[in-house]
Amino acid sequence: MKETLKIGLYHRYKKEQGEDKDEGSLEFEAFVAEMMEAVRGGRTYVTRASRNYGIDIEEHTDHGLYLGLAVCADDRNPVDYGPIAVVHSQMVKRGAVGGYVATTGEFTAGAYQYADELNIELYNGDRLVELWVGSEAAEEEERTEFSPAT
């Protein structure tokens, strides 16, 4: 089931060949931001498609600012250290306490090693699906808890 959901996320949010990168590019970012807010409890903001220096999501928590980047990729093209470097650079520049990169696919071994030393969490497609399913279950439980008894 998780594999099917992961593939579905990729196909839902991938850019079609020839499609302008900025055109509708905030859908995946908004999906990731909504999930992070539900799971991590902060307040998220999706940055504009331009002038964000690579950062897609700002998350404000009681612990401080976290910066996120969302990459829609399939397993055949694993995400390398580049997006992690962008997040780290902006963390330093903006004084953020942490960051994350989320993808529908996988990360290279080098990406995991690079992120491990920088307080940057990596959410591969499997972990993203687990968060998604978990956030949906939590929302359903919350609705059940607060619904009037019948």
UniProtKB/TrEMBL annotation:
Molecular functions per Gene Ontology: DNA binding; endonuclease activity
- One GO-annotated biological process of the protein: DNA restriction-modification system
Q: Where is the Restriction endonuclease type IV Mrr domain?
A: 27-131
What's one Pfam family here? Mrr_cat
Highest taxon of the lineage: Bacteria
SUPFAM superfamilies with a match to the protein in the record: Restriction endonuclease-like (SSF52980)
Looking up InterPro entries in the UniProt record yields: Restrct_endonuc-II-like, Restrct_endonuc_IV_Mrr, tRNA_endonuc-like_dom_sf
- Name the chain's protein: Restriction endonuclease type IV Mrr domain-containing protein
Q: Which organism is it from?
A: Paenibacillus rhizosphaerae
